[in-house]
Design brief:
By secondary structure, the chain is α/β, with parallel strands linked by helices. It is built from 14 helices and 13 strands.
Length: 407
Amino acid sequence: MLSTALVGATAAVTAAPAAAVGDFYRPPASYSATPGSVIRTAATPLLLQTPGLPNQWPGNAKKMMYTSTLQNGKPTAVTGYVVEPTAPWQGKGPRPTVVIGPGTVGQGDQCAGSKMLALPMSLDPFKPSIGVNYAGLEMHLLLLNGVRVAVTDYVGMATPGVHTYVNRVESGRAMLDAARAALTISKAPEDAPVAFSGYSQGGGAAASAAELAQDYAPDVNVKATYAGAPPADLSKVIDQIDGTFIAGGIGYAINGLQARYPALTPILRKELTAQGRQVLANAATQCIGDTGLAAGFQRSAQWTRDGKPLSAVIARRPEVQQMLDDQRIGRLKPNAPVLISTGVHDDVIPTGQVKQLYRDWRAQGADVQLTTSYIPPIVPGLVVNHALPMLQFLLPGTSFILGEFHR
């Protein structure tokens, strides 16, 4: 609730240790606890731009660190970036802002999108690690239309602590607070139009922001949300990706849960083998490409002591079921129109739980639409049927948001 989020809003958070000189991603010794407060910014070039020259196409980018709120109500520092387009806004009123929630990039700090602004991907041969910044496609499309773009790195990505992957509350709040920070940095009116967009992990973050906005950020003037392939019910998603190329991504979710639910640690110690524990440890420092190469196509039954899949472990552990249920999206009502997309043959995000999210929101009277991809199965398990709908819905999702801005 808003009252919880704003506890101590006028106070300062103390973070130790203090930031080292030149270390953008380590929070300062103290900063404002008010959600959406700007902690620091730094100008940075985009792909093919010359460093130091202002007003280059497609816009002027700044990395940002801002305040958000953890699941337990405590303030935290989150990073991301905001891009002011060089193209003019042709619609009525002030320039709108779209906050993009990136899809799954990994859990290691090196995977943060704000660290890859000048490149479509990053390669660290010494780690080794491969990172991909695929928020760029949507970002450039919006910038061409004169729309300001903000992108969050999410809680714990690049900043101290564990990235709480697909945590419903923390990802949604990170999106909402990125909007607040972006408006401040750009000196835009506080009531300037805002929309949220994302696919996969980002679709879940966008969906969470949409339904948390009314209570957590009533000051944000939300006009629309596009939520592509949102993981609204993690209990269904875990089963779906088990055995696929990104099976190790289950480790991201478990690591994130363990960071917020200490009771999960002894359960994992009892249920997992040494191999299973190693998969989790590796995932915590990997980008998605690294995880695919290291644990691709493994079955979670290989990680458990009894040789049964993690879904079976969850089924006999009510306390774990509750942890996953806490992440369920769809129990709150969005306060602005939403477009949801799904692929009937998506091999990562089950279409059934996406459609359930649609039904849950419709039952509450939300203004929500559902669009579906019928691309036939293409080598199931290689996540092709997850990636292709992302591209298929890029233009419709953007058009939906622009249409709501122009109303």
